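User: What would this chain look like folded?
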Amino acid sequence: MFVLTVDQRGSRRDVDRVDKLIGELDNHDLARPFQRTAGDEVQAVVTDPATVVDLALELVARKHWSVGIGVGPAEEPLPTETRAGRGPAFELARAAVERAKRAPARVAVEGADLDSAEDADTALTLVATVVARRTDEGREAVEQIRRGRTQTEAAQALGISKQAVSQRLSTAGLQVEIAGRRLAERLLKRADG
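Assistant: Here's the prediction, encoded as structure tokens.
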């Protein structure tokens, strides 16, 4: 099981972004939905490693969040309220978010299987670094491709040449992200054993 504990960065100098975030993340496949746990922090429970990677990278791209991922068991049955959950995965997510606040990509993984969790943490940090460093132009090009558009269609939508789209995708590291996502998913699955 995976628990995500997500903390808003710089919240004392910024508006509260929690309610908006909760509304925007409700379209993911979650075992328990994101809920505010305290102040500017939210928590969710996820069973699918691909969803964990999607959420972590989406949050990193938003630049306002530190993301902690705890991998391990949780007391079952899960309570209706996410914030009432208990067990090692919840405790590990707490440790992970504290580490994520100081991590280069603002994401961290902690798990009971230390080696597997460290491997997953490394893979996710690498791909998150690629995503976090994208320019606005790179994000726009990647988003067009994610919507299922061809490079030609993306070029038309963005009002640029197909070659410019290709260059933006290359600079944005799209192929690296795709490979990194797959690797992070496999390693998270292994860490969940």
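The first strand starts at residue 2 and ends at 8. If you want, I can go into more detail on any region.
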